[in-house]
Amino acid sequence: MATQEELFQRSLLCIPGGVHSPVRSFQNLQISPRFIRSGEKAFITDTDGKEYIDFCMSFGPLLLGHADPQINTALKKALERGLTFGTCEPYSLDLAEFLIKNLGNPVEQIRFVNSGTEAVMTALRLARGFTKKDKVIKFKHCYHGHTDSMLVDISQGITEHTRMDTLVLELGDRPQLKKVFQTYKKQIAAVIIEPLPCNHGLIINDKIFLEYLREITLEEEALLIFDEVITGFRVSFGGMVERLKIIPDLITYGKIIGGGLPVAAVAGPRKIMEYLAPTGSVYQAGTLSANPLAMIAGLTALRQIQKIDYRVLEERTLSLSKIFKNWFRSFNKGEFSRFNIHTFESLFSITTLEIDQYFPSLFKTLLRRGIYLSPQAYEVGFMSMAHDETVLVELEKRLWI
Ligand SMILES: *Cc1c(COP(=O)(O)O)cnc(C)c1O
User: Fold this and answer.
1) Which residues of 300-334 are buried (b: 16+ CB within 10 A; e: fewer)?
2) Mean local confidence (pLDDT), 377-397
3) pTM for the complete prediction?
4) Measured distance CA(393)–CA(36) in Å, rounded
5) Residues 263, 264, 268, 273: is their CA dihedral positive or negative?
6) 199 lines ligand 1 (CB under 6 A)
7) What is the spatial distance between Cα 239 and Cα 31, in angstroms, rounded to a whole number?
8) Which atom of ligand 1 is nearest to the CA of 114?
9) Could you tell me the end-to-end alpha-carbon distance of the chain, in angstroms, rounded to an integer?
10) Contact residues for 305 (Cβ-Cβ < 8 A; gap 6+)
């Protein structure tokens, strides 16, 4: 069997940077990424046979842990019946009805796609088609996938036109928001936000700011889009919409919705959703969208997730924080079943340079001890239902070896 290093050297030849998504890269860590052979519950095992407690959890989808037996059984049965039909089948209908019934307002209709990026791209196009306006507002420190307009502040390869149509504002800055709405009167199609940002440490949005967003978008006839790709089904079944009781116009879901297979969705009221083709003139399509395998994985996952007591998940996240905190002084905090090895405060009170300096040694120390974090300092860690008391005891043991 090839070593991790050999596998990675081969990857570097045929894949840019050796990875299929930059967040998987170990670029700043001076070691090669782990090649994972298998996962079960809260654990993953690499091709050398070394086992890790997984706190990356594929960046969020696996709320039930790896290799959930019910999902596996359902998928094995589904495999026998064929992979994709490119027409209607009953499973996407079951999942759509299940979601509409359990999510409630504003979800009256749903369109399934394959990734969070696609869901956001579709929601933005739909908002433009519905409002007949061009510009969208997004916020710094919120991630919405890799569609052009959502990357204007971080990527090359984006046209000047797209840049002009995307306004990137500071989170929580009401005067700035108000000014932008005045400057671009009747030009703003939508405001998109992560109601609980999970892609840049542990930022918490002020609820009053989110309520203000709802107010101003109603006044200015722009759509409010909550991107719940990461928070949907994680902070409660109905995501932040349920927790905040703020009703946006459109919601995007992803990650957990597919139970580990590629599923995402745009959801909203019928009067907006019907602007999508074929009823409306906003085009959107997908060869493998809502394929039966992905739909069955999502449905089997969500039926279990619907019964979760989210308080248990949060209590365990607090216990986890205490364990890390004992070991690593002040640099940890966790809530809503996510955590970061740096607190939000520390992210902003120490410089990026400092984080870049100490994160590699922290990450490698944990890796050696059989604890796997996301290899990026700013990404949050994720708990799952499989991270139970015994896993926490095991974590403590591995930390204090
Ligand atoms: C992960 C994520 C996306 C992108 O989803 P992909 O499936 O990776 O394309 C979009 N928005 C948020 C909030 C996310 O966390």
Assistant:
1) bbbbbbeebebeebbebbebbbebbeeeeeebbbb
2) 94
3) 0.95
4) 23
5) negative
6) yes
7) 36
8) 7
9) 29
10) 63, 64, 233, 237, 256
Quote the CA–CA distance of 177 and 75 in Å, as a whole number: 46
Q: Which tokens sit at 171?
A: 């989170």
Structure tokens at 71: 């999902």
Whether residue 343 has pLDDT greater than 50: no
Average confidence (pLDDT) over 148-161? 96
Cα of 247 from ligand 1 centre, angstroms = 20
* Share of residues in the chain with pLDDT > 90 (%): 84
Instruction: Convert the pLDDT of each residue in 297-335 to its tens digit.
Output: 999 999 999 999 999 999 999 899 889 888 876 555 667
What are the angstrom distances between the C-alpha of 371 and each of 8, 50, 69, 392?
20, 11, 23, 11
Residue 20 has pLDDT above 70, yes or no: yes
Cα separation, 264 vs 284, in Å, equals 14
DSSP reduced 3-state for 131: helix
Segment 274-279 shows an average pLDDT of: 98
Pairwise CA distance, residues 298 & 112, whole Å:
11
Q: pLDDT band at residue 351, thresholds of 50, 70 and 90?
A: low
Distance, in Å, from the CA atom of 44 to the CA atom of 260, rounded to the nearest integer, reads 15
Indicate the top mutation candidate among 150, 229, 235 to test ligand 1's pocket, ranked by most ligand atoms within 8 A of CB: 229
